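Researcher: Sequence recovery benchmark, item below. Answer with residues only.
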């Protein structure tokens, strides 16, 4: 139980610092925009390349992977169906909301919680790779196609290939698969730059929270509630059901699968929304609510399954 508090304590301090900086206007009115762009174009690509290039790709095929895939896809689909068919949301807003419902914080929160709760800091590696290699490219491609197109069909189709996150992820996977690594003079500065991604992401999230009240009246209020309920309640329950009754997991493997499914929405969801300037309030509030809400849910999971 102490591990849950320690993991979230590290995150909370950085977010609170960002919130205070935002309230004090120390960085000016456009600070969140500037930090968001430098994270998207520079810091996160460096982090993704350095992490994925050193990753053990066989970890992707862990016993929890089928549970993670099915539970996440179910949340994406559930939100997408309601948003498109019932609320008639545009494609970019639907994509951002779907990501908020099923795209997990396997890095900023997953890594420390994996260490403190599961005893293995690399326990969330499968979900990180799954999201970066499969979910993120698909979502970013849809966002590129649905928000671009000003330069014609050809430019719209090629736009995802210029996305720095996708390029960095693919290059990292190639290095991991081939066993070739760039020399130390190349990796050392990339490691240094990439190490700034997580703290800047968290500071920027705090800055965003300082700009407005969570769940303030807006056209996305019901989207936020639906995405948060899917992430905090439906996804852990579905992961438990799949792991127990479909894939026959038990003991620590079952506990690991449910803990990973309980992780809150990733800060990257807000970063994506900010980059494409669509549904930023939805992403910000869903990340905030699921981050706070996941604490009691994780305690409950640890009490019921953790022994």
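Model:
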């Amino acid at each position: 139980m102490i591990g849950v508090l320690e993991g979230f304590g590290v995150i909370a301090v950085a977010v609170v610092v960002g919130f205070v900086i935002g309230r004090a206007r120390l960085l000016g009115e456009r600070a969140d925009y500037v930090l968001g762009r430098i994270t998207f174009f520079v810091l996160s690509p460096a982090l993704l390349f350095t992490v994925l290039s050193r990753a053990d790709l066989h970890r992707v095929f862990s016993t929890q992977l089928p549970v993670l895939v099915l539970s996440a896809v179910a949340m994406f689909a559930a939100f997408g169906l309601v948003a498109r068919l019932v609320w008639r949301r545009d494609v970019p807003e639907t994509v951002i909301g779907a990501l908020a419902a099923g795209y997990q914080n396997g890095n900023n929160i997953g890594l420390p919680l994996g260490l403190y709760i599961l005893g293995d800091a690399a326990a969330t590696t499968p979900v990180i790779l799954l999201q970066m290699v499969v979910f993120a490219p698909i979502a970013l491609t849809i966002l590129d196609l649905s928000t671009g197109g000003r330069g014609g069909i050809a430019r719209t189709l090629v736009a995802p290939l210029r996305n720095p996150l996708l390029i960095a992820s693919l290059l990292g996977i190639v290095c991991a698969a081939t066993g070739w690594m760039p020399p130390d003079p190349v990796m050392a500065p990339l490691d240094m730059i990439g190490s700034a991604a997580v703290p800047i992401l968290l500071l920027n999230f705090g800055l965003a929270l300082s700009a407005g009240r969570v769940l303030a009246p807006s056209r996305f209020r019901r989207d936020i509630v639906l995405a948060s309920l899917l992430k905090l309640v439906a996804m852990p329950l579905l992961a438990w059901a799949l792991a127990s009754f479909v894939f026959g997991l038990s003991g620590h493997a079952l506990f690991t699968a449910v803990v990973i499914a309980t992780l809150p929405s990733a800060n990257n969801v807000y970063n994506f929304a900010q980059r494409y300037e669509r549904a930023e309030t939805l992403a910000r509030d869903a990340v905030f609510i699921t981050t706070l809400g996941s604490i009691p849910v994780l305690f409950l999971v640890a009490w019921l399954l953790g022994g």
